[in-house]
Design a protein that fits this description.
Strand 1 and strand 2 form a beta hairpin. The termini are close together. This protein has 111 residues and is an alpha+beta fold. It has a single domain, classed as Orthogonal Bundle (Arc Repressor Mutant, subunit A). Helix content is 58%, strand content 15%. The mean pLDDT is 93. The chain has a two-stranded antiparallel sheet. Strands 3-4 form a two-stranded antiparallel ribbon.
């Protein structure tokens, strides 16, 4: 047995960050493209763009900057604030995971 956590962050009762949302932002950053990030996660471009806009609206901050395409297509990248939030969420998530594992061991012992 091992513990599993479902983590999300809210702002004024609105969901802003979760494992899924952060994964979307990370894939956009890694691929340099919203369209490629969406495809990598099996999402339509419209759904991925809608999620990004929802996160930004709920936070009141711009997290992704996109430039229009040309011959090579457009590109997308995280803003400094987007990079900071992804890094903070990942550190927070890792700390919770480590704490949960320690507490699980303390409560359940070796399984």
């Amino acid at each position: 047995m091992e513990p599993r956590l479902k983590v999300w962050v809210e702002a004024e009762d609105r969901l802003v960050l979760s494992d899924y949302r952060v994964q979307l932002l990370e894939v956009i950053a890694a691929r340099g493209s919203l369209a490629e990030g969406a495809a990598a996660l099996g999402l339509s471009y419209r759904r991925a763009w809608g999620k990004v806009r929802e996160i930004e609206a709920n936070l009141g901050r711009k997290l992704v900057e996109s430039s229009a395409g040309g011959p090579g297509g457009g590109s997308s990248r995280l803003t400094e604030e987007g990079e900071r939030l992804v890094a903070c969420y990942n550190r927070f998530r890792q700390a919770l995971t480590e704490y949960a594992a320690q507490e699980f061991e303390r409560q359940f012992g070796a399984s």
